[in-house]
Amino acid sequence: MDKLLKLLEDDATLTPEQLAVMLEKEEGDVKKMIQVYEKNGVIVGYKTLIDWDKTDREYVSALIEVKMMPQRDRGFDRVAEKIYNYPEVQSLYLMSGGFDLAVIIEGKTMKEVAYFVAQKLATLEFVTATATHFVLRKYKDKGVIYGADEIDERGMLLND
User: Fold this and answer.
1) Could you tell me if 5 and 40 are in contact, meaning their C-beta atoms sit under 8 angstroms apart?
2) C-alpha–C-alpha distance, residues 14 and 88, integer Å
3) What's the mean pLDDT in 123-141?
4) How far apart, in whole angstroms, are the C-alpha atoms of residue 20 and residue 4?
5) How far apart are CA 52 and CA 58, in angstroms?
6) Cα–Cα distance for residue pair 34/17, rounded to 1 Å
7) CA separation (Å) from 92 to 53, 71, 159?
8) What SS3 class is residue 98?
């Protein structure tokens, strides 16, 4: 049921009761579908998106491109497994193009991120190059627009 998954992806706080109304299904059926999706690994987790710039938490995010030589019989999987097990790593993607992997990490300071790249990432066997890009501002993440002005039904700004 793609519609159920899309609704949960857009707002994981929706209750089974709300979802049942939206989908014109029985609440018990919706609960069972969610349980099946969780058991089968279709739903892999639930996250809350937070605009950390509106808090006093200090951190930096970086996207690191990694170029590497694939391993015989394992391709990129073994090195990717080493990388995604570091707690700093938020996301890891196999990419097409000039680099092989894209790593999204968070650290307390730029120095901490630089240390991670130099001491942990660049030293891994089969890694041949890295390029680090620091995130300066998030405009949109996972479909959510950050810091957008709210507009009422008349098209008027509510934040002024």
Assistant:
1) no
2) 30
3) 92
4) 9
5) 8
6) 12
7) 23, 18, 36
8) coil
Residue labelled with tokens 């130099």? 118
- 52 within 8 A of 137, measured Cβ to Cβ: no
Confidence of residue 153 (pLDDT cuts 50, 70, 90): low
Q: What is the pLDDT of residues 68-115, one digit of tens each?
A: 998 888 889 999 999 999 999 999 999 999 999 999 999 999 999 999
Contact criterion met (CB below 8 Å) for 92 and 124: no
State the chain's mean pLDDT as an integer: 89
Q: What is the β-pairing status of strands 127-134 and 101-107? A: unpaired
User: So what's the pLDDT on residue 155?
Assistant: 61
Pair 60, 117: CB distance under 8 Å: no
Burial 12-36 (b: 16+ CB within 10 A, else e): eebebeebbeeeebeeeebeebbee
Selection from 140, 160, 152 nearest residue 51 by Cα: 140
